[in-house]
Amino acid sequence: YGVKGKPMYINVVRDPIERLVSYYYFLRFGDDYRPGLRRRKQGDKKTFDECVSSGGSDCAPEKLWLQIPFFCGHHSECWNAGSRWALEQAKYNLVNEYLLVGVTEELEDFIMILEAALPRFFKGAADLYRTGSSRGICKG
To answer: What are the distances in angstroms from CA 119 to CA 95, 124, 132, 133, 137?
Structure first.
């Protein structure tokens, strides 16, 4: 696109285990946004731990694969769960293309690192996060 510099990639993802557990219960209990919607696993009272113990498909380790394609790229192989190539490509992209990737469960630490790494853009972000203040944030 005629840009001289390479874009700086920054992202935040959910911890893979926390994401899987959350999705497991979401399928059973839904959320507050559409309380009347019938979920496909609604009524299934089995806990996530019970699912793991019994080898259930809803909690299978393959479900952890969901974040690999996001970092892997657009190649169709990225969507093949268990693909060694896709995993290596995702790791390569993380190391070589991303400045920083944080996890939502450690958001404050991520914001503090952003502030230290890119003060021109994120100066004061940690204080804003801690106070919950939106004062000084550009709205547009």
So the answer is: 22, 8, 19, 18, 15
